[in-house]
Write a structure and sequence with these properties.
It contains 4 helices and 26 strands. With 381 residues, the chain is mainly β. It has one domain: AttH-like domain (AttH-like fold, Beta Barrel). The strands form 3 sheets. Strands 1, 3, 4, 5, 6, 7, 8, 9, 10, 11, 13, 14, 15 and 16 form a 14-stranded antiparallel β-sheet that branches. Strands 17, 18, 19, 20, 21, 22, 23, 24, 25 and 26 form a 10-stranded antiparallel β-sheet that branches. Strand 8 and strand 9 form a beta hairpin. The longest helix is centred in the N-terminal third of the chain and has 11 residues. It is globular, with a radius of gyration of 20 Å. The two termini are 25 Å apart. The N terminus is likely disordered.
């Protein structure tokens, strides 16, 4: 039994990789070559990946509601390449968290059947699920009844252009960069108007507010692509800021990539490639055995539309975390042990949602904006 499980996990998860070194990664920054910090999106940039090799594609709709709670809807579409074939899994996730009443936290992760795409591969459908991009590329309609206890009905409308870092938003992996064997890419709608509701266990919850949409792909085994992640989503009255940072495993030289940007209604203020995340203070989490961040600092550096130097800083001392997600929580313990032993994989996500201040300096002019931030610190291997 153990040998069979180990073989199955090797196909799906894989063992630790050889040490290829940082030269086997071409980051977004390197691909941009100093010529382009960001590129505005078209609908074609939001197509779902089409591949039979191991990959994870996701679309996430984050909401800072007018009423105060945090809400999220997410599609995860995964392809796992096994020894002689490949198979697909798909989930629709819903999360609702009220910082004023922490006991109301709700989480649903429901497998969906018969996933498919429209001809352009910009809209996703499955039994009782639809994530539809409008013809003009200006809004998504998100509907799900996959979980009988968690309905979802949303309209996500762009208030500023979407963007991707550099020329194509891609970090590629491989010893021959003309034919890379893997990639990570992100596309952002940083500032959106959200209208809609959840129905949680028969109770309707309005989730109108401001939102961030991210379309992402990891076209390789996720724990081979990145060992750690940091993420910030700030939403204020006039400004939105997003940063996605990851560090590769030692097999790719612990290479760090951090992309992001700022937006106001109607425009992308800047797309940034020179970004940093600092875990200023941490405490060991004895249960998960990871250093949970307590004080954190996000810094964006770029240029505004007029070519002026722009620096944005968000510093935060976290209160109690919103959640700690055991990514393999539904996996039997013996399988977890195999994965950890074979590939050092032990993924946990620390989530926070709190009021925050974004300090933006353009030239010699400094502005402060009060808003809310949703943040994640993810440890994988």
């Amino acid at each position: 039994m153990f040998k069979w499980a180990q073989g199955a996990m090797s196909s799906a998860i894989g063992t630790a990789e050889p040490v290829y070194g940082p030269e086997a990664v071409q980051t977004v920054q390197q691909r941009a070559g100093g010529k382009c910090d960001y590129t505005e999106l078209t609908s074609k940039d939001l197509t779902w990946h089409d591949s039979s090799s191991t990959n994870v594609g996701t679309q996430v709709f984050y909401i800072a509601t007018e009423a105060g709670p945090f809400a999220m809807a997410q599609v995860i579409y995964s392809v796992v390449e096994a020894a002689v074939t490949s198979f697909t899994t798909c989930h629709f996730n819903i999360k609702l968290f009220d910082p004023k009443n922490r006991d109301t936290k709700f989480w649903s992760s429901c497998p969906v059947k018969n996933p498919t795409f429209d001809e352009a591969r910009t809209s996703f459908y499955a039994d009782n699920v639809g994530v539809t991009l409008s013809e003009d590329g200006g809004f998504y309609k998100v509907k799900s009844q996959a979980d009988p206890e968690a309905f979802c009905n949303l309209v996500f409308t762009r208030l500023s252009p979407g963007f991707m870092a550099g020329t194509d938003g891609r970090t590629t992996y491989g010893t021959d960069q003309e034919k890379p064997w893997g990639e990570i890419k992100h596309r952002f709608w940083p500032r959106c108007k959200v209208e809609g509701f959840f129905v949680i266990k028969g109770e309707t919850v309005k989730v109108d507010g401001q939102g961030l949409f991210i379309h992402a792909l990891q076209d390789m085994k996720p724990h081979h692509a990145a060992a750690r992640w940091n993420f910030a989503n700030f939403q204020g009255p006039t400004t939105s800021a997003v940063m996605m940072e990851f560090t590769t495993p030692p097999s790719y030289g612990l290479t760090r990539v951090a992309v992001g940007g700022l937006a106001k209604d109607g425009q992308v203020v800047t797309g940034t490639l020179d970004n940093t995340v600092e875990h200023v203070k941490v405490e060991n989490d004895p249960e998960a055995e990871w250093p949970e961040p307590k004080d954190i600092k996000f810094t964006w550096k770029g240029k505004d539309k007029d070519g002026k130097e722009l620096v944005a800083v968000l510093e935060k001392s976290w209160g109690p975390r919103m959640d700690r997600v055991d990514v393999m929580g539904e996996v039997p313990n013996f399988v977890k042990k195999i994965a950890s032993a074979a590939a050092g994989t032990r993924p946990y996500i620390y989530q926070f949602y709190e009021p925050a201040t974004l300090k933006v300096t353009v030239g010699d002019q400094e502005t402060l904006e009060e808003g809310v931030v949703f943040s994640e610190a993810t440890f994988i291997s």
